[in-house]
Design goal:
The protein is of the alpha+beta class. Among the domains are: 194-255; 402-470, Arc Repressor Mutant, subunit A (Orthogonal Bundle), CATH 1.10.10. The chain contains 20 helices and 8 strands. A 4-stranded mixed beta sheet has the order 3-2-5-6, covered by helices on one side. A two-stranded antiparallel ribbon has the order 1-4. Strands 7-8 form a two-stranded antiparallel sheet. Helix 3 (122-131) packs antiparallel against helix 4 (137-148), helix 13 crosses helix 15 and helix 18 packs across helix 19.
């Protein structure tokens, strides 16, 4: 047996506090972002808000995102791009995560149009991910059963043995579906205990270092000592030095013990669109909403005091670095939102030209490939982000739906099918309204094969009453 040494070169991305901040800002709604900006302004004297800044009219070509962004002080060592699109970034706090996608037939996507007018619950969010993950009806039914048993804090509130009795399916099948749901966003969801919740979040970090390995051991073996803050015994039990223990504890402290609490925590009173879509001639222009963009700058007076080496000057330097990182994170957020929104509009141009009946089937993977980002990043960007368009105000997620196959071998969007059903009902004889079976038959004649129960689901999602209630004398 030959023995030897192998030298590998590679780049490793550390989960720094700055990267955590960039990821967290990316997932915030505009209203939540405004609160975050205000808190930063209140806490950091190096950060100022620009007053009365007006952007130029958009008659000409849209300026690049960096031209419409924030005033960065010179001589900064920040990277040009924040790597918010990593596959393991989902560890910290709320957000939209790996929601899987494919192009298999799926008639049971939720009605995303309703998301524009009501608060999204944790269960809604999990069902959306499930419908883009499970494509066999049996698996989807089991996923629905498990999701229904998840409480508002994100924990599984029922024993799997109870779900076995309810479903009549083997325990192994339920465990397999549960493991997949535990990979959904928010990280740590569907756990059965605090230890499992924290462990699930730590498992999603792929870059292993000493702090991560030690954090996993603490969660798996010594969570009780951590809860008691008995760091002396904890260090002894793990045979760990104080410096490494401190890093591991800090990593655990950054996790969310109630991962579901951030979803549906409170309905917004109003919506500020992140993006504006408009026709310019025969082309659609996509641009960031200036009203939603925080405009910040470095306080140059205080920044000029950061050159010394005493404690006061070090404090100013730390605050300066924090302010620069925050501005850079905001810029990265805006650039990513604009890039994703532009890709969505390009994919769904027929919708803007002809309406919902022309909506194309589209899943997260389509946009992820178009902008060369990970699906978890796309899910994160599309959550609680809105665009105002010539056809109304829509959440980004409205444009996503999987396809229903047609007899010609093509595909129709579930959203488009709902629009066709609505048009049929609007044109029906009010004395002899169409039943769900009759609607299914007409759709079949058009090459779209869906079951009567699916017609009923789409009809209810569009707030269309059944035929018996639509009949008029």
């Amino acid at each position: 047996m030959k023995q030897g040494l192998e030298l590998k070169l590679g780049q490793h991305l550390a989960m720094t506090p700055q990267l955590q901040q960039a990821i967290r800002l990316l997932q915030l709604s505009t209203l939540d972002l405004q609160q975050e900006v205000q808190m930063m302004l209140d806490s950091n004297p190096l950060l100022d808000e620009e007053e009365g800044v007006e952007l130029a009219a958009s008659d000409g070509p849209s300026p690049a995102p960096e031209e419409r962004q924030l005033d960065l002080a010179a001589e900064t060592s920040l990277p040009e791009e924040l790597p918010v699109d990593s596959q393991w970034e989902d560890v910290f706090d709320m957000g939209s995560s790996a929601a899987g996608s494919a192009t298999a037939n799926d008639e049971d996507l939720p009605d995303f149009e309703a998301r524009n007018s009501r608060e999204q619950s944790l269960q809604d969010y999990l069902r959306w991910q499930a419908n883009l993950t499970f494509f066999e009806s049996d698996d989807r039914n089991l996923a629905e059963l498990i999701i229904d048993a998840i409480d508002d804090t994100g924990y599984l509130g029922a024993e799997l043995s109870e779900l076995v009795e309810t479903s009549g399916r083997p325990l192994a099948e339920l465990e397999a579906i549960l493991r997949q749901i535990q990979e959904f966003d928010p990280p740590g969801v569907a756990a059965r205990s605090l230890a499992e919740c924290l462990s699930l979040q730590l498992q999603q970090i792929e870059e292993e270092d000493d702090a991560l390995l030690l954090a996993r051991r603490i969660v798996d073996e010594q969570l009780e000592l951590l809860a008691k803050h008995d760091y002396v015994r904890l260090a002894q039990a793990l045979d760990a030095r104080e410096e490494k223990l401190r890093a591991a504890v800090a990593l655990i402290a950054a996790l969310n013990p109630k991962p579901g609490s951030e979803i549906g925590a409170g309905a917004s009173e109003y919506v500020i669109p992140d993006v504006i879509v408009r026709w310019v001639g025969k082309r659609l222009r996509v641009e960031l909403n200036a009203e939603a963009m925080p405009r910040l700058r470095i306080n140059r007076h205080y920044a000029g005091l950061s050159g010394g080496k005493d404690a006061a000057h070090r404090y100013i330097q730390d605050q300066l670095n924090e302010a620069r990182w925050f501005i850079k994170s905001l810029q990265s957020r805006q650039e990513t939102i604009l890039k994703v929104a532009t890709a969505i509009v390009e994919q769904q141009k027929d919708f803007f030209m002809h309406g919902p009946e022309a909506m194309r089937p589209m899943v997260l993977r389509d946009i992820a490939e178009a902008v060369e980002m990970h699906e978890s990043t796309i899910s994160r960007v599309t959550n609680q982000k809105f665009m105002t368009t010539p056809r109304g105000l829509f959440e980004f997620k409205y444009f996503f739906s999987s396809h229903v196959g047609t007899d010609q071998g093509g595909a129709a969007s579930a959203t488009a099918i709902r629009a066709v059903i609505l048009k049929m009902v609007q044109a029906e004889d009010s004395q002899h309204p169409l039943s769900d079976a009759e609607i299914a038959k007409v759709l079949a004649e058009q090459g779209i094969q869906i079951a009567r129960r699916t017609v009923a689901k789409y009809r209810e999602a569009a707030n269309i009453p059944p035929a018996s209630q639509r009949r008029r004398l």
